[in-house]
Amino acid sequence: MQMAKHKRAAALLVLAAALALPTRLWAGGFTITILGGRRTAMSTNLARPDDITALFHNPAGLADLRGVRVHLSTSLTFLNTEFGLMALDPERFPEINPAGCGEPGSDPCPWPIDSEGYYVDEIEPERYFGILPYLGASTDLGFASSRLKDVVVSAAVYAPDFYGAFLPDDAPTAYHIIEGSFLVLATTVGAGWRINRYVSVGANLSYNYMRLSYAQKMSTIDALTPAGQAPDGVARAAQSLLGDFRLDYTGVDHGMGWGAGVLVNPLPWLALGFNYNGATPARFEGDLSLRALGNLVKDQPDALANNLRAFGYKVPVGLTVEMPIPHSLQFGVNFAPLWWLEVGIDYRLWLYSFYKKQDLIPHYAADDPGKEEPLSRESLSRDKRYHESYELAGGVLLRPLTRYRGLELMLGTFFDQSPIPDETFTMDNPSLSQIALSMGARALFAGHWRVAASYMVIWYLERDVTTSETSPPTNARGRGLAHLPGIELEYVF
User: Fold this and answer.
1) Is the model's pLDDT at 12 over the cut of 90?
2) Distance between CA 103 and CA 387 in Å, rounded?
3) Residue 85's beta-bridge partner residues?
């Protein structure tokens, strides 16, 4: 009887550990704002958003984009990140290094450990992608009525978040993440109205399609062993039978976003920009699969679920992941003391501090033969304890040619602070504070075409986490470098 109870408890722990994993996936839904030629080249644009991406950055800027315009821009991300991971407990994660490896007369360990307790080999993504496309159009309403000539409307389709990474499935980081991707596809409409020469206002409304995918490996013996305890015979036997197991999840959601902005021009050479962005919280709904990877069950894809059901437990087939999306407050100032010189300063504040916990809701099939639904929203909640995140940016724009003022050269920089404390830092969203340097050029051709090219380099500042509270622990040293070339085409009819 005691053994049966122990096995039932073991099965429950496996299930609980498996469902606890997605509490970390892409936590926070970090917003990327690198859209448009001025933003990607100068780093600042809130007080003078002079291309159609004003619809996204500050819709009040639309009011000064007269005529009919069509805009296409995109930037690509080429990322190089490396993480040194503190070695995981070999008893809880026995499949990283086989027992006895590295000892005299034995084979070397696949993942040797240095004197400081870190794996010798740093781990980086095998593949990574990031792309930020924007397609939009705008027109003033002067064609409809002379009274509406100061109103400009715009519509756009773009992806403010579209990125993913694929890491080795045999590395220690597989217990944190194997692969993951995040997509936000936005369709936005908005308008700007210049009330007078001093003030313009604007607003936008977005419909967002969001998709979240995630895969991760788990150690069965770790799932069956409470924190601070040594593995027992049942956990070891389960590891021998099932091996590690893999979790795969894909969830989808639809939501609304909105924003409002103001531009103030108290002096001809001074512009002030204010913008607010909000959105409905994300609530991803999707399928969940668990698959044992051990040699004894490798040809039995349902082995893990069948073992759980043998002890009377229903097995979740779906999951709802709730993920707050932070509202943001943004302020910018632009100085243009000379016709050939502009200086901008922007400050963006993302209100992450309300993100204290993340909730998950498991879903069970109505015809599941199990009798118990052991896990609930309450049991799966996990602490996040995020703090506010901000970005401070500065940039300059020069017009070097007196006879051709359509040529603009831009240079900028920004610092962006991560909102994640060390205790809840995770490898699936390894948010690091950043310093960036941007540069680019923009030119007007034939009075209708405006072409911009930009290049941004982002240094992800080294982070050394030693106080992780996650399971498995995410004690790691990480840093990175990203290159983002971009291009913009805009045509004015």
Assistant:
1) no
2) 45
3) 476
Residues ≥6 apart with Cβ < 8 Å to 52:
36, 62, 65, 69, 71, 134, 136, 137, 138, 154, 156, 490
The Cα–Cα gap between 148 and 191 comes to 12
Query: Which residue's entry shows tokens 């007080």?
Result: 47
pLDDT (tens digit, 9 = 90+) per residue, 24-82? 333 333 567 889 999 999 999 999 999 999 999 999 999 999 999 999 999 999 988 88
Each domain of the chain, given as residue ranges in start order, spans 2-492
Q: Which two tokens stand for residue 379?
A: 């049991």
Q: For residue 37, give the nearest of 48, 47, 51 by alpha carbon.
A: 51
Q: Which pTM value belongs to this model?
A: 0.89
3-class DSSP state of 208: strand
Write the burial class of residue 26 (CB in 10 Å: 0-12 exposed, 13-18 middle, 19+ buried): buried
Positive or negative, the CA dihedral 169, 172, 175, 179 is negative
Look at the chain and count its residues: 493
**Beta carbons within 8 Å of 396's beta carbon, 6+ residues apart:** 42, 341, 342, 343, 344, 410, 411, 412
Q: How far apart are CA 33 and CA 108, in angstroms?
A: 46
Query: In this predicted model, what pLDDT tens digit does every residue of 265-319 receive, in sequence order?
Result: 999 999 999 999 998 888 999 998 888 888 877 777 777 777 777 777 788 889 8
Domain 2-492 fold:
Porin (2.40.160)
- Burial of 185 by CB count in 10 Å (0-12 exposed, 13-18 middle, 19+ buried)? middle
- The span from the CA of 273 to the CA of 14, in Å, is 52
- Write the pLDDT tens digit of every residue in 148-171: 999 999 999 999 989 899 999 999
Axis crossing angle, helix 303-310 with helix 233-242, rounded to the nearest 10: 140
The four Cα atoms 442, 444, 449, 451 give a dihedral, to 10 degrees, of -10
CB atoms within 10 A of CB 68: 13
Tens of pLDDT, residue by residue over 221-262, are 888 888 788 888 888 888 888 888 888 999 999 999 999 999
Residues 8, 9, 11, 13: what is their CA dihedral angle, to the nearest 10 degrees? 170
Q: How far is CA 303 from the centre of its chain?
A: 33
Look at residue 14 in the predicted model and tell me its pLDDT.
55
Reference 189, options 173, 202, 176; nearest CA is: 202
Radius of gyration of the chain (CA): 26
